[in-house]
Design brief:
The complex is a heterodimer. Chain A is an alpha+beta fold. Chain A contains five helices and four strands. Chain A has a four-stranded antiparallel beta sheet. Classes of the chains: A alpha+beta, B alpha+beta.
């Protein structure tokens, strides 16, 4: 077997040690990892730039739409306010109590031998309508005449209003006599309390003049 | 088997490399990738938000235009109701208006005076005020009063008669004396 002499033993060992240098290996690994990380970062940065360009497109779109939307929102809010206000006002208008039809009914219930001297009425949306009617009746049976008025008024009001109550507050005979058609007839003084609720029942038909004016208004529209 | 034993110097270098690698990772994630990802996430969120806004805005615009069509009647009605309140202070124009109204119905000497005024509690009526008036008609016959009252109630939709008092006139039995308490809903001017 031939004998091999390694005369470069020390140099080779040194070279091997240089190659196995952990710092060098570490640096190489770090450079490799750094390159990988840089690649990954570049890829992410590219994606981010793409997203940024998408964002700027969307922002441009929004800038175009925004003034129109703001104006539309403002207008819609204004319209909603108008609609709501009109609704509330219309409800108020519809819930009004019309005194003229009531007065018309009252005048039709008063017989020629009765006279009303005072009328006090209050309309309240929550409490209903309360009326106090003071008057005089004359006849052979003046109390019966007053009762006839009370009965007729209750009947007539019941046709149009709910919860009608017509009651005497006072009914008293008077000493004075009334001359009706040449005959002296005894008299009675009465105070009627009338209560009813006009706000839930069907409203009385509007007077002819009103209907006409409303029709005219509609025609004008 | 060949044993590879690290020298002290090599261990130090190895440790230094590990520390350097950790530092590199920290710097990379904290100062490079982290902010980039955060910015990307925020931009994506912003895109989603804007796209949602754009989507809803389109329906908003459509809704507004359909509301505009639907509210046509209400708008006209509102304008009509607004036009019932003339310019100026109500105390200046309401009493003459009432006087003229009753005079046109053959009733003279009707006077109106302001009792009180108050804003409405309803938020819908924030731009409106309630004025309480007392209208005195010293001499009127029942039929004319009823007739004029009907006309007043119908020509003034925002006027509600809350109290009505009619008394027989002492001097002239054919006439009555009436007091009307009315609430007028008027626009703030």
């Amino acid at each position: 077997m031939p004998l091999h002499l390694n005369l470069l033993h020390e140099e080779i060992l040194e070279l091997r040690q240089r190659q196995r240098d952990p710092l060098k290996i570490g640096l190489s690994a770090m450079i490799a990892a750094g390159a990988l990380m840089f690649g990954y970062y570049s890829w992410n940065a590219y994606q981010t730039l793409e997203i940024k360009s998408r964002l700027s497109i969307v922002q441009r779109d929004w800038a175009k739409v925004e003034p129109r939307v703001t104006a539309a929102q403002k207008r819609a809010a204004e319209l909603r306010r108008t609609v709501d206000t009109t609704k509330v006002l219309d409800t108020m208008i519809d819930n009004r109590f019309f005194w003229a039809p009531f007065l018309e009914k009252l005048s039709r219930c008063v017989a020629p031998n009765a006279q009303l001297t005072s009328f006090d009425g209050t309309a309240d949306e929550t409490k209903g309508v309360t009326v106090s009617i003071e008057g005089l009746s004359a006849g052979r049976e003046p109390r019966a005449e007053a009762e006839e008025l009370r009965h007729l008024l209750g009947e007539q009001l019941g046709k149009n209003y709910k919860d009608v109550k017509v009651e005497f507050k006072t009914l008293e005979d008077l000493d004075t006599m009334a001359n009706l058609g040449g005959a002296n007839l005894p008299m009675a003084r009465f105070v009627l309390n009338v209560e009813f609720n006009p706000f839930e029942a069907a409203k009385p038909a509007a007077p002819a003049r009103m209907r006409k004016s409303k029709d005219e208004a509609k025609q004008a529209d | 088997m060949k044993q590879s034993k690290l020298t002290k110097d090599q261990i130090q270098k190895l440790l230094l490399s590990v520390v350097g690698f950790i530092v590199l990772l920290y710097v990379y994630f904290t100062f490079f990738l982290g902010p980039l990802n955060r910015s990307r996430t925020s931009m994506l969120a912003k895109i989603d938000e804007l796209q949602a806004k754009i989507g809803s805005s389109k329906s908003e615009i459509t809704k507004a235009s359909s509301l505009e069509r639907q509210a046509g009647t209400a708008t006209t009605r509102f304008a009509d109701l607004q036009s019932l309140t003339p310019e100026g202070a109500p105390i200046a124009w309401f009493p003459p208006r009432v006087k003229t109204f009753f005079a046109n119905h053959g009733i003279d000497r009707a006077t109106a005076r302001l009792e009180s005024s108050a804003p409405f509690t309803e938020p819908e009526l924030a731009g409106w005020i309630r004025y309480n008036w007392s209208i005195d008609v010293p001499q009127v016959d029942f039929a004319s009063l009823g007739d004029s009252l009907a006309a007043l109630e119908n020509s003034e939709p925002l006027l509600a008669v809350t109290k009505l008092s009619i008394k027989a006139s002492a001097e002239l039995p054919q006439f009555q004396q009436a007091t009307i308490a009315a609430t007028a809903t008027l626009m703030k001017r």
